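Example S7 (structure tokens).
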């Protein structure tokens, strides 16, 4: 009889331990299984001219940033001025991935808030985003000269993330 009452108690204690461990973790940190792996290959039309195509293969030999965004994304407005200022430095190419958005809305948004991108491609159905493991926009991926994803920023890029993580990693990757 005692054995039957100890089993649920033991299970409850194990669940409590897992809960306690989970509560100590930062919920904004979601590890990406793509870090250290090749960026997914795709070919997508440019937002400004659909007859032109882009592929990550076009960026081999360069360190570059892929930034997913959308005109309907509130958090994208938060990071956009930071991206505009960063793009002025011409440190690396910045490629925009207009995610699940209408082309006309994306073009209006860039005209209104500024265009930090060297080029922007469209991902109407979200398939490219799925391949990159995008949970929601904005998300950014720092990709090295060999096409390997080296860093993933979930949520808006902040000045702190840019100065403390992204720019130092860019300098290291450019060596």
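Recovered sequence:
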């Amino acid at each position: 009889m005692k054995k039957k009452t100890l089993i649920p108690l033991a299970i409850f204690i194990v669940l409590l331990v897992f809960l306690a461990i989970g509560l100590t973790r930062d919920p904004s940190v979601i590890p990406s299984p793509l870090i250290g792996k090749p960026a997914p290959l795709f070919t997508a039309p440019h937002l400004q001219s659909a007859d032109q195509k882009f592929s990550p293969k076009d960026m081999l030999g360069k360190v570059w940033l892929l930034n997913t965004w959308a005109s309907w994304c509130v958090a994208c407005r938060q990071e956009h001025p930071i991206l505009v200022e960063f793009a002025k430095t011409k440190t690396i190419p910045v490629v925009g991935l207009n995610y699940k958005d209408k082309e006309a809305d994306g073009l209006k948004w860039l005209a209104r808030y500024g265009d930090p991108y060297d080029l922007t491609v469209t991902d109407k159905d979200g398939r490219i985003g799925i391949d990159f493991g995008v949970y929601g926009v904005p998300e950014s991926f720092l990709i090295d000269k060999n096409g390997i994803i080296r860093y993933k920023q979930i949520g808006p890029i902040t000045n702190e993330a840019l100065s403390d993580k992204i720019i130092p990693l860019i300098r290291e990757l450019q060596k």
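Notes on this example. The chain has five helices and seven strands.
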